[in-house]
Specification:
This protein is mostly helical. It has a single domain (about 15-90), classed as MTH865-like (Recoverin, domain 1, Orthogonal Bundle). The chain has five helices and two strands; from the N terminus they run H-H-H-E-E-H-H. The protein has helices at about 5-10, 15-25, 35-40, 60-65, 80-90; strands at about 50-55, 55-60. Helix 2 packs across helix 5.
């Protein structure tokens, strides 16, 4: 069984799926990152890049606008940024309350 098949067999929460989606799209970003604009330049379609997971779709621009008050720049690693981004999405109601 491939690693991908094994991953699909495990149920993931919408937040976990979105974290994986964000990680994939931000994979080419060079760290440390000092501000939101630095992230946009590394995305496939800049601020228009769409993140889709578990029936949730959001653009980088919308995520930046709604989540900016939760982000604490600079970020030294992708994981630090992903932690804050998912927390921002939870606080902004992107996921069900049982997340």
């Amino acid at each position: 069984m491939s690693e991908e098949s094994e991953a699909e067999d495990v149920e993931s929460t919408p937040a976990e799926l979105m974290r994986a989606e964000l990680a994939e799209k931000f994979a080419d970003t060079e760290f440390p990152v000092k501000n939101q604009m630095a992230f946009a330049t590394g995305l496939p379609n800049g601020p228009g890049t769409k993140f889709s997971a578990a029936g949730i779709e959001v653009t980088a621009m919308e995520l930046a606008a709604r989540g900016s008050s939760y982000l604490d720049f600079p970020y030294e690693t992708l994981d630090e940024f992903l932690d804050d981004s998912i927390e921002a999405m939870k606080e902004e109601g992107f996921f069900d309350d049982d997340e």
